[in-house]
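User: C-alpha cells for this one?
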Amino acid sequence: MCKHLWFHSCKISLIVLLFLFPFIVSAQTTLDSLMRRIDSLEAKVELIQGRIVRQTPASRTETRSALESGKLGGFVVADFKNTKLTIGGYIQADFIYDFKQPGNTQSFIPSSIPINNASQGILTFTPRQTRLTIGSESDTKLGKLKTILEFDLFNPDGTSVPRLRHAWGQVGRWGAGQYWSGFMDIDVFPNTLDYEGPNAMVFTRQIQVRYTQPLSRKSTLAFSFENPGSDVKYPVDSGLTTRRLFPDFVTQFRCNFTDASHIQLAGLLHPISYDDVLQRQHTSIGWGFNLTGTVEVSALKKDNFVYQATYGKGIARYFNDLGGGGYDAVAKSKADIQTIPVFAIMGFYDHWWSDQLSTSFGYGYLRLDDQRWQPVTDFRSTQYGVVNLLYYPSAFVKFGLEYLYGKHITIDKQSGDNSRLQVSMMYKF
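Assistant:
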C-alpha cells in the first residue's frame, strides 16, 4: 500500500514538473535578458560619466593668463563621434574703493584719471567680469577643428548687457573670426584682479584671418590680416575723415622653451587711411614691434616673471591705456597727418607662498612722443603699479585683495593720480 502511494506521488510530481518546466525556462530566460540589459545600462552610464568631465587645474596654475587663454577649460558636456563640447566660465563680484576721482570706476585705466583730480572717495560694486565660454574640438581630415564662443558682462556702454569677446574657429593651421590679436601675447597678462590689466600692455581682440606655420616642436611663425581701421582725432575744421582701405598685417614668431617659459616677437604694419577736404585718398603706414616673454623662475614653486617691451609709430589703438583715445596720429594740415611714436614697457612677478596663496606685483610705463600739432592737454604718459594677495580655497574658487596705483600726465606736465583697493570673489564653473 505504501509502495503504491509513493509511486502515485512521484507520478503526480513528474506531471507537475513537466507542466511547469516551460514557465521555469521562460523565467530564467527573462532574468538573463534583464541582467544583460542592466549590464548594458551600467556600461552606458559609465561611458556618460567618463564623457562629462570637470577638468581640475593643477596646483599653482590658476592664474589670470591661464584663465584668459582658456587653459583652465570647463565642463566637458558632450563627447560624441570625435567631437568634444565644453562649457566653462565663472561668476565674479568686485568690490572697489577709489581714494580719488578715478575716471573709470570699474576698470583701472590710468589715462582716464582726471587731471588735478579731487580726493573724493568712490565705492563701486560690480559683477561685470562674469563670463561664459563655449568651446569645441573635433578631429577632421584637415586636422584638429577648434571653436570658441565667449561672452562677458563688460559692455562698453557701461551696462551689464552681454558682450561678445571671442567668436573664433580654427582648423589645422588656419583660423578666422574674432580673437586675440597676433600682435599681443595673452600669456604675459599678470595675475591681477582688476579687469583692465596693465596700462602698457598690448591688448586687443581683432576680427582676423591667421595662418600658423610650425617651425619645430617648440617654435611657430604666424601671419594674420586683422581688422582695418585707425584711431585718430581729426579736427572738425580740418576736412579730414577716416577711411578703411587696408587690413593690418601682423607677423609673429614664438618659441616655447618649456611649458612655462617662452619668448615672442611680433611685428605690425598698420595702414591709416583717410580722405582730405577734396575727397582725395591718403594712407600713412603705422608700424611697431612687440617683444614679450615668460620666465619660469622656479619650476617647483611655479614662480614666474612676465615682461613686455613695445615700440612703434601710429599703433596707439593696440594698447590698453590708449585704445579709443585717438592717438594713432595727429593732423598737421588739411591734407596730411603725422603718426605718433609710442613706447611701453612692463614687468610683473608672480610668487606662490603655498598651493593656496599667491602674490603678484609689478609696474607698467607708457609714453607718447608728443607732436607740435597736438594740444597741450593731450596724453603724454601713464604709470601703473599693482600688488595683491590671492587665496585659492579650491581649484574653482578665488578670493583676493589688490592695491593699484596710477598716474596720468599730459603734454603740459599737468597730472592726476589715484589709489584703488579692490576685493574680488570668483567662482568658476
